[in-house]
Amino acid sequence: MRVLDLTLRLEKGMRGVDYETKYTVARDGWNARTLHLYSHCGTHMDSPYHFEAGEQTIDQIPIADCIGNAWVVALDNLADQTPITLAHLGPLVDQIRPGDGVLLRTLWSRHVGDADHYRDHFPPISPELARWMVQRQVRMVGVEPPSVADVNDLTAVTEIHQILLGAGIIIVEGLTGLDQIDGPKCIFGAMPLKIAGGDGAPCRAFAIVGADW
Fold first, then answer.
1. Which domains are seen in the chain, by residue range?
2. Can you say whether residue 28 is alpha, beta or left, with left for phi > 0 and alpha for psi between -120 and 50 degrees?
């Protein structure tokens, strides 16, 4: 059994990330920083409140719902801005069961160093696929881009978030390292900061491979 880290490193200069030194060992006896984080920076989880698809905030999502079985969909050669449709799931369409998670592996995290390309040109989830996930009762969906839909198209990004979040599907965005997962199955977990009334929060995401389902 192996535990794999699927979390982007939060670095100063990333969109939504800043910090400054508050204390130092030399001056104060310990090191500490003050962090300034956008609630959807880096690897993060959305709550239904993010798009008012429901009243549930990030601190109200049960921790037990944040981990479970997941399928990895390999989409490594997908062109920029190609909508991800049901057809892209291939034979996994018949294997994904109610309560399973779905991780869309696009290798998009390789663009994280180019902030504009990373944010503006990723393959989004199509309305067709989002509705299918609701019908199939998918529990959690994870993607490598910073969003499940085009952040420059308010209508589209609202529609996809409301479809998924409105059905209680947990969304995790900004994943990395999905290519570390051998095979189509893993146990996937993402643990968000417990922010009162939060619309979302950075989280530590991971996969467990080699464990029995």
1. 2-8+42-208 (3.50.30.50)
2. alpha
